[in-house]
Each structure stands twice: as structure tokens, then as C-alpha cells.
Amino acid sequence: MSAVRVRFAPSPTGNVHIGNIRAAIFNWLFARHEDGTFLLRVEDTDRERSTPEAIANLLSVMEWLGLGYDEQPLYQSTQEKEHLAAARQLIDAGKAYLSAKNEEGRQAVIFRIPWDTAECPAVSSAGPATIQVHPDVPVQIVANGVNYAQVSKKGKPIPAAACLAGFKDLEILDESNHCIFRLNNHIAGVLDNDRSFEVDNAAQFRFTRRQVHFHDLVKGTLAKPLDSMKDLVIVRSDSSPVFHLANVCDDSTQGITHIIRGDDHVENTYRHILLYYALGKTPPTYAHLPMIVNDQGKPYSKRDGDAFVGDFRDKGYLPHALFNYLTLLGWSPGDDREKLSREELIQLFSLERVQSAAARMDLKKLDNLNGQYMAELPFDEFLNTCRTFAETCDWFDADAMDTDYFASVAELLHTRTKRFTDVCEWDYFFREIPDYDEKACGKFFKKLEVRAALTDLAVSLKNLSTFTPETIERAVHAATEKHDIKHGKLNQPLRVAVTGRTTGAGIYETIALLGPRRTETRITHASNTYFGEI
RNA sequence: GCGCCUAUCGUCUAGUGGUUAGGACACAAGGUUUUCAUCCUUGUAACCGGAGUUCGAUUCUCCGUAGGCGUGCCA
Asked: Nearest nucleotide to A293 by CA–C1' distance?
């Protein structure tokens, strides 16, 4: 086992989303490829929204997809003491401070983006910088940062704020370029919260820009200037730890070496890295995955019901088909292979090959892949799952069901089933009279000779001594010749007369399965109902 | 507004400083199947725009454009 330790850290607040589970899959694949450890951490600190049902759903979805985790899952709610201790540590070290009191007289804990970055190798200088400032709005320099107004293109003031650390060596200049304030002269007092300043008539900031940077395994080297960051709340005034703190603490205690997550977290990463160093830890390696978007190219929202993993299971997809399809969203093995076994995926997976643009779900392609997996499913397994899905269909009658007959239907349709929900369309095998596609009836029952041939067939099929695909084929052939119909031109009318529809398995096999009685009844029904007047 | 990220057929993607820019899904045509589906063959279809570097740019750089993410006492 290698030193690699990764985790999937969902918050159990409802159904598991497809984008989430894709992150889980990539973590799992990376861990297995590296012979490392894959952990589950349940971020259940949102007590209002985290429910036992959601946790059960999460666990069942992971099991369904075969995403086995190593070690016991860590429930974040059990770590609150550790989180608060970390906050205490930061306060004691002067790296975090308390907010102003709220109405109830309580205070939040705020992490200060560090002014002194000596111990933080992720911060580097980006050279001198200037920002235009609107003179109408006084610049405030206080313990929790700098408040000022930028100048819009139209010359209007736009409120802005950033952490103190963003403005190393800050000089504030007035409109005639005179320096009217030097932060370095006052920084100690400001940080200690003894001093604060309000500077009028400021026109420009001149300072040394510093930035946090890290190397992302997917996106390369990324950086963010400190003057676009603000100090952040790490413990709310009700004493509950905030995501950023909890996340960093737990990743640290779980010994996570690689954080693989959606790229909506890129911006958080800069803050997390700063937190790691402030806590005396070294941050892990990061890899940010592109988002999965809906067929409109938009981010999935709660309204995209299709996006829950459980829905794919309910819609009759095979877990490995979904798994395989999801690996192809934002990743490829580098050659033309697409249908890949789990072993192949483990062997081939690498974060370096992950795409950085968002990927769209293509349900058609998923269907195709699912059909491929479906076709090679062992028949017993196929049959059992068909049975489960059939039970949800309105035509299914558990008491009256002939299991051998059901199995024969399943066998006949096995290779043409793309999803298990297709089973519901097998209704024409089980109803006495199926629903008829009237448009198809109009089209295929038009010719007189076809009607006559079908009427003949109702009788000749009924009188067959043995009722097999071969004998049926001969009977159809005979009727075709007798009524001077071209080869094969009776098959579709016959199919419509017997099944009500234009597609299905081979028609002889279908009729053989239905049996002589039902066949005759249906042809007669079709004749009476749809042949109409001459 | 500001910061960051992204951009190859309709979709998922491969790929390269010089290629007939490859594959898959979808779509279309033909073939096999006396029928349906499968299957086989073929076809339609892409380097976001503009500059620059270069003998040569889809590939490198810059500027646009479009989209995404972030800018919370949400996660």
C-alpha cells in the first residue's frame, strides 16, 4: 500500500448528485491506481439538512456503484471539538481574532490572512501594483482589513474590501500623487486592533502585491492575489465551525495526501492552503475536476431531476455502465478505447489526463453504453432485474404471472434491451389485447390483399399442429403467396395485428411465444377494429 | 464591478509548430436479416474571433468574445 490517501467528502443533504459521485469515482480510481487508501467522510455538520435517510441513500448509492471505502467513515459532526481547538490555537497564536459582538453579544472567530508570510511558502511577491481609488469615499484601515471604493469605468465609486495582508508596503496617494498614508508605519497597531485609520481624498493605492499559489494536478499552477481576498469566518458566533476550518482540520487528521474535488472549490483552495500553514501543517496536493453540466450546457441545479445517482438506478442503468460513462466525462485513456472494465480503468487512470473544461451529459451515449453492458449480462442476472422492474409496471400481475413465460419473453428481448425500464414496454406479451398504434394500423392494413391474408392467417395459424417459429414462418409464407403479396411484405402488417406496434423481436418468435389462442384473438380484434369499411 | 478558470464535429473526446485533424454517440444512405432489432459498409460534420511570433499556428503569445467558478457567520 502506498502513502496516497484520498477521500470523498459529501454532505448528506438529500440525494447524491452525479457530479459528486464523479468526484468519488475519480478519487476511488486514483486511490486504486496508486494502491492507496480511499476514505469516506460524511460532512454532516449542517444539522438541519443532514438526515439519516440521506446518509443511507449515500451509502447505498456507493455500494451500488462498487465504490468501496477503506477504514471507517469519519462523521464530521464528531470532530467539532478538534475544530474548535484548532480555532483556539489560531487565536492564541494571534492568527485569528474575534469579530465584533452581534446582537446577542456573541462573537465569531475570524482567520486573518497572514500579514507575516515568512512561514508560508505558498505566498510570493508579485511585484509592485497600483489600484485607482475613488476620492469621495474615505479609505478605512481597520483590524479586519481595508475598505475602499474602486473607480468604475463611468467614474462611479464601487465599494471594495480586502484583507490587510493584500496591501504590503501600502502607500495611499492623493490626486496630486502625494503620499498621505503609509501602512508600514502603523501596521503593528492596526493588527493589534488599537489603531484604525480613515483616510480622505485617497486617489491611488501603491503597494507590493503578494499572491498565494499552488500547483494543481489538473489545471497547472494557479495563483490568487491577496488583495482579492478577505479574512474569513472560521467559527460562527453560535460556536459552530465553518466548512473551511472543518474541512482543513479533517483532511489533516485523516492524513489526506491528495484532494480531488470539483473545480468550484478552486477559490477555496487558496484559503485552505493559508489555513494549513497557519496551523503548522503542510497542505496536500490538489486536483480540481471540471464540472458536469446538463444538456443545455448549464450547471446542474436542483431542478434537473435527472442528475441524482439514485434516479439512474431507478431508470434501469447498470452500475458499471454509469461508472464507465462517468469516467469518460472529463477524462480519457488517451487512445480510442471507451468501454473499459474496472481493472482497465484502475490501470489507466491518471489525473494528468483529466480535462479542464466542463463536460456535458449525453444520455444517448449513456444508453448506448448501457445497452452494451446489458447485452453481456448473464441471463439469470438479467432476468432477475427485469422481474424487479416489471413489478413496477401496471400490466404486471404477480399472482397470475407465469414465470417460465416471463423468462422466455426476457430471453427473446435480452439483446434489444437498452435499459431495464424498457421492460415496461413488454406489456403486449402480457395483456390480452395490447394497445394498438393507430397510425401504424392505418399504414399497414390499407391493402385489401393484406387484410385477406391476415384473416386467412388467423385461421391457418390456429390450426397449426405444432406452433413453432418454423411452422409459423411457413404459414406466413403460404399466405403471402396465396394472396400474391411480395416477399416479406406481410411481416409488418402481421406484427402490427398481433402486437399493436411496429418494432419488437423477430415476428415468428414473438408469435410462437404468444401462442395460437392469443394470436388468433388479436388478429381478429385488429380485423374487427381497424380494417373498417372497404 | 473585480479576481480566477475554460474554449477541437450537435455531444464526449484524441492529437500536432507542417496530419487527408482520428475515434465514439447521435444523424443520413446502402448492405445482411423474407419482418424487427442487431450487425457490416459508407457518408455529413469541428480546431470561437482578431492580431502577433514563425518559412509555416488548430497548437505558442496578446487582445477580444462567450461560458463557468468565486467574491457568505452556505458547503
From this structure: B68
Cα separation, A290 vs A528, whole angstroms: 59
- For nucleotide B26, the protein residue with its alpha carbon nearest to C1' is A364
| Residue A111 CA: distances (Å) to CA of A238, A254, A344 | 16, 22, 45
Q: Chain-centre distance of CA A39, in angstroms?
A: 19
Cell of A326: 462517468
Three-state DSSP at A71 gives: coil
Q: How far is the CA of A316 from the C1' of B11 (A)?
A: 22
CA–C1' span, A79 to B42, in Å? 63
A451 neighbors A445 (Cβ within 8 angstroms): yes
Cβ neighbours of A352 (radius 10 Å):
8
Asked if this assembly's ipTM is beyond 0.90, the reply is: yes
The sign of the CA dihedral A462, A464, A468, A472 is negative
Query: Distance in angstroms, CA of A136 to C1' of B33?
Result: 83
pLDDT tens sequence across A272-322: 999 999 999 999 999 999 999 988 888 887 667 668 999 999 999 999 999
Nearest to A6 by CA among A217, A289, A30, A19: A30
Q: Distance (Å) from CA A296 to C1' B45?
A: 20
Nucleotide nearest to A45 (CA to C1'): B75
